[in-house]
Amino acid sequence: MNQKQVVLGFSGGLDTTFCVKWLQEHGYEPICVTLDIGQEPDIEAIRRKATQLGVKTIRIIDGKNDFVRYFVTPALKANALYQGVYPLATALSRPFIAKVMADVAKELGTKYLAHGCTGKGNDQVRIELALRSLIPDCQIIDPIRSENLSRDEEIKYLESKGIQTGITQAKPYSVDQNLWGRSVCAGILENISVEPPPEVYEWTQAVEKTPQDPEEVEVKFTSGVPTALNGSSLSLPDIICKLNEVGGKHGIGRIDHIEDRLVGIKSRELYEAPAAIILIKAHQILESMTLSRSALEFKRQVDHEYASLVYFGNWFSHHHMDLLSYLHYNQKHVTGTIKIKLYKGNCIIAGRSSDFSLYQKSLATYGPESIFDQAAAEGFVKILGIENETLSRAQLFNFKEMQHLLSEKNEDSKE
User: Fold this and answer.
1) Is residue 413 pLDDT above 90, yes or no?
2) Would you please indicate which residues are annotated as catalytic (active-site) residues?
3) Which of 54, 154, 210, 280 allows an S-S link to 251, with CB 3.0 to 4.6 Å?
4) Per CATH, is 4-169 categorized as 3.60.10.10?
């Protein structure tokens, strides 16, 4: 039988292993594509697994540098945290995976593409929106969604064919990781009333097992991008790897979050992202001293919008380009060095400096060397108070009415 070539994003995990066998049984020849963005210490193990599954062609593409340059860097400039918590490690990888899949499909001249996403997750949206932006007339195959399968059913199906995935019904965790972070869900984690078992964590120490002494790290930023760690110039991928190691040792970056997925359900997600949490914290500290108040207030909106755009899968869009243009100019003077103390899961500011700092001690000090003219403040405060003064004369402010409202609210809270 003449098989149709289909490009499959292949991780070697439960879902994509199932997809390989399903596609083979349904008249397709899966061309497996694996993007190496730091997810596996032994990336060649994925190639061996694909070969054992009878895959004729697998391409493993080293994308670590491009992932950091084109996906992580702008997210860091935007302090991208979905719902103020999640550093978007998985979400950032999906448009990149889709881009590589699309490139291979164009090269082979096929319009068939497949993925192993569940129908209740976010990744189906992220990957498919990206693929349809890059190949508008592509045909997307999603075996797990079309068969409406659970992870237990996938495991049983593969076991019936003598295929072991290392994932059991007792530990059916879904794990995804790359340089920017690691995510875990499913299994016992779906019981939100219990603490996650220690076995789900790989990158971070439990707080009670972290060192008793704090450790300081010093990060230098140039135009919003980390360029040195502890005085040594390093590439950003190297900085991320080193901070993942040292941050994890101190319990930094453990996240247990009830998250609003874009399909409308709440899901418990566990993340480990030591480097992401440290760098975003340091970047925010640097911004606070190099951006004006108005720039900071507006950028908070941009940061929120950027995180939402990535999470909801709109990476390949003109709106994204608009935000990138803003970030490029906004970060021009976000240059300086931030010292962070790592201790018992906390990132504590320990020092900061910048040639572009808007903090001026001569203005802020309460000492005799202050150059601030306090006498000028009298007229300033008077002008600021004109509106309140006018309102009070025309519409007398009734404090007793306010007390009544406050009392009513207090009574409501008791109920």
Assistant:
1) no
2) 15, 94, 123, 174
3) 210
4) no
